[in-house]
């Protein structure tokens, strides 16, 4: 059953999911996740549904992520509601990745964090000229989650590392280059595309409406990105970026140094280890373990405060520098729960 925050319907063989919080850039609440998950389960065995399509209400984007205000208040109160939200969200992400029917994600406009989780695990992922895709979590004291470590670890070369550590805002060509999307369709054709999905199915509909995407800016910078981000530590990555002799590399170094030092180091390790994981589910389990520890740490609440609550854009990280984030501290985020 639909609620005001997520509209669910069956129309002409399509299971339609419309994220409907446009004033909040369609940020996901726990209730929305549970509704979407239930609909996906029901539609998977429903012969009246040949494909699922997810879109966002309004003109600004598919989804800006999870409801981080709720996470902030939970972290401040020492609660566990955020962990329950993440657990259900990650289960939904895993289900999307193995969905037995075409799952068409219209990644128009802003697609960040949890928005990547409801789209980039699908099997038909469409970007437009308005798409801005990213995993900005290190800027709020968190890590790329919703399977973000798995997705970014499989991007060509070190493009995923660059995107994760800088919180890069990826255009449509970049999203395609990193493997976060499959097709480019101009925004003016989306209405016709959805109509064609119902009549002809995803393959024919996409073939009829897809166009040549714009080039990828980050892919054109692979030389210095691969050379710099292949370093073993965040500290060495920053040094290489500053010494690369490229203005974009220097800007990347400055972007990184403004993020949570703890999140940066935990994210780099999570990305590197995700390369050796065989399944998305393994990565999601590890992300949940890390997220649970981060919920009780200083930087997550502080990062959300600075970016969203007070909006002073001046987070006071603790530890304050990369050098102060010890290997033992990083290890604590990866320890099995029973050993903490």
Distance between the termini: 40 Å
- Uncertain regions spanning at least 5 consecutive residues: none
Number of helices: 16
Q: Helicity, in percent?
A: 40-55%
- % residues in beta strands: 5-15%
What is the count of β-strands? 9
Return the CATH class: Alpha Beta
Biggest sheet details: 6 strands, mixed
Mean pLDDT figure: 96
Number of domains: 1
Helices and strands, in N-to-C order? EEHEEHHEEHEEHHHEHHHHHHHHH
CATH architecture: Alpha-Beta Complex
Report the radius of gyration as a whole number of Å: 19 Å
Q: What brief labels describe this structure?
A:
340 residues, alpha/beta, 2-enoyl-CoA Hydratase, Chain A, domain 1, six-stranded mixed β-sheet, ClpP/crotonase-like_dom_sf, hydrolase, EC 3.1.2.4, ECH_dom, 3-hydroxyisobutyryl-CoA hydrolase activity
Could you please describe the fold and organization of this structure?
The protein has helices spanning 30-44, 68-77, 81-97, 114-117, 148-153, 159-166, 172-177, 190-200, 202-209, 222-229, 234-243, 247-257, 261-274, 280-295, 298-309, 327-332; strands spanning 6-11, 14-19, 51-56, 61-63, 103-107, 110-112, 124-127, 132-134, 183-184. The mean pLDDT is 96. With 340 residues, it is of the alpha/beta class. It has one domain (1-340): 2-enoyl-CoA Hydratase, Chain A, domain 1 (Alpha-Beta Complex). Helix 2 crosses helix 15 (298-309) and helix 6 packs antiparallel against helix 13 (261-274). Helix 1 links the parallel strand 2 and strand 3. The protein starts with 5 loop residues before the first strand and ends in an 8-residue tail after the last helix. It has 16 helices and 9 strands. The strands form 2 sheets. A 6-stranded mixed β-sheet has the order 1-2-3-5-7-9, sandwiched between helices. Strands 4-6-8 form a 3-stranded parallel β-sheet. 50% of the residues are buried.
């Amino acid at each position: 059953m639909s609620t005001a925050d997520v509209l669910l319907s069956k129309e002409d063989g399509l299971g339609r999911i419309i994220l409907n919080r446009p004033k909040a850039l369609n940020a996901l609440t726990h209730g929305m996740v549970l509704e979407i998950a239930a609909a996906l389960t029901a539609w998977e065995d429903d012969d009246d549904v040949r494909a699922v399509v997810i879109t966002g209400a309004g003109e600004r984007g598919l989804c800006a992520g999870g409801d981080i205000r709720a996470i902030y208040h939970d972290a401040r109160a020492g609660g566990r509601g955020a962990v329950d939200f993440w657990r259900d969200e990650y289960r939904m992400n895993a289900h999307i990745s193995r969905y037995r029917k075409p799952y068409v994600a219209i990644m128009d406009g802003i697609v960040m964090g949890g928005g990547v989780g409801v789209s980039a695990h699908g099997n038909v992922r469409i970007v437009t000229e308005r798409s801005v895709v990213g995993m900005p979590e290190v800027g709020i004291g968190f890590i790329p989650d919703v399977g973000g470590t798995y997705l970014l670890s499989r991007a060509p070369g070190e493009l995923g590392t660059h995107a994760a550590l800088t919180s890069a805002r990826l255009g449509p060509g970049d999203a395609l280059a990193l493997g976060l999307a499959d097709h480019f369709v101009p925004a003016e054709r989306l209405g016709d595309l959805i109509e064609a999905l119902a009549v002809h199915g995803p393959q024919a509909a996409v073939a009829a409406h897809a166009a040549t995407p714009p080039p990828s800016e980050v892919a054109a910078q692979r030389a210095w990105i691969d050379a710099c981000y292949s370093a073993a530590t965040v500290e060495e990555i920053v040094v290489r970026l500053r010494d690369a002799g490229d203005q974009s590399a220097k800007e990347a170094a400055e972007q990184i140094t403004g993020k949570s030092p703890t999140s940066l180091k935990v994210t780099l390790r999570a990305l590197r280890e995700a390369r050796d994981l065989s399944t998305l589910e393994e990565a999601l389990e590890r992300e949940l373990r890390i997220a649970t520890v981060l919920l009780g740490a200083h930087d997550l609440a502080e990062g959300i405060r600075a970016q969203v609550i007070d909006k002073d854009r001046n987070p006071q990280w603790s530890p304050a520098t990369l050098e102060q984030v010890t290997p033992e501290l990083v290890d604590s985020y990866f320890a099995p729960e029973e050993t903490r």
